[in-house]
Design goal:
alpha/beta, 12% strand, 7 helices, Rossmann fold, 5-stranded parallel sheet
């Protein structure tokens, strides 16, 4: 199963654990594939570095490197979506389209509002776990 992880879910998994961490564990156990684009990786890095300054004991770089190597990195050039209230969130829909993923895992209200666009469901982490990982 291919999914796209919104930045808030990845960052929560790394820094705070809980349901988002369970999703990362499922990826490590090859139960799911995480799809990413270059734009998503850049956002992961930017936000991760900002939080690393606040929580210096957490080193996010190895995790992002692992995702970049072992994740399903797709090219989104030529795919243009303009559906989200926050234009910065469109890259997650574009990535899902590029890799034929039917699920984006996110807690972002703007992404949750567009759930169903092009048959792509946007689920909160706990909802995704309850529906697909148990």
């Amino acid at each position: 199963m291919k999914i796209v992880l919104d930045t808030n879910v990845l960052i929560s998994a790394i820094f705070f654990g809980g349901a988002p961490f369970q999703i990362l564990e499922a990826w490590q156990e090859s139960k799911i594939q995480i799809c990413l684009s270059k734009e998503i990786i850049k956002e992961y890095q930017r936000v991760g570095i900002q939080l690393s300054n606040k929580y210096p004991s957490v080193n996010i770089k190895p995790i992002i490197e692992m995702l970049s190597i072992w994740g399903n990195v797709v090219e989104t050039e030529g795919i243009s979506v303009n559906i989200c209230e926050d234009p910065d969130d469109n890259k997650f829909i574009e990535c899902a389209i590029a890799c034929n993923a039917n699920i984006i895992v996110s807690g972002d209200k703007h992404l949750l509002k567009v759930s169903g666009h092009k048959n792509i469901r946007v689920l909160k982490p706990r909802g995704f776990i309850n529906e697909y990982l148990q």
